[in-house]
Design brief:
The protein is an alpha+beta fold and 84 residues long. The chain is built from 3 helices and 3 strands; from the N terminus they run H-H-E-H-E-E. The protein has a 3-stranded antiparallel beta sheet with strand order 1-3-2. A hairpin with a 2-residue loop joins strand 2 and strand 3. 23% of the residues are buried.
């Protein structure tokens, strides 16, 4: 697990409306601030993300973790999780 970086902010900025009804950030700086304030976390792979969700008591109710609205695919098997 790591903190969000510039790559994450670009993807979050582009896709934020999948999670929120309106924009929460208008530029990369605001996006990074939002992600850091909301304890967003980057996971190196799906297994790491699923283990984290299980430890946090998130009930996937049969859903795959990568399909959650709070999860943003970063490419190369990495995922950003935003605790909304």
């Amino acid at each position: 697990m790591t903190e969000p970086n510039k790559e994450c902010t670009k993807i979050f900025l582009r896709d934020q409306l999948k999670l929120f009804p309106e924009k929460v950030a208008d530029n990369e700086e605001e996006a990074l601030d939002f992600l850091l304030d909301n304890m967003a976390t980057v996971f190196d792979d799906l297994t790491e993300l699923e283990s984290y969700l299980e430890e946090e008591g998130v009930d996937l109710d049969g859903e795959r973790a990568e399909n959650l609205l709070e999860v943003f695919a970063l490419g190369e098997g990495r995922y950003l999780y935003v605790e909304a």
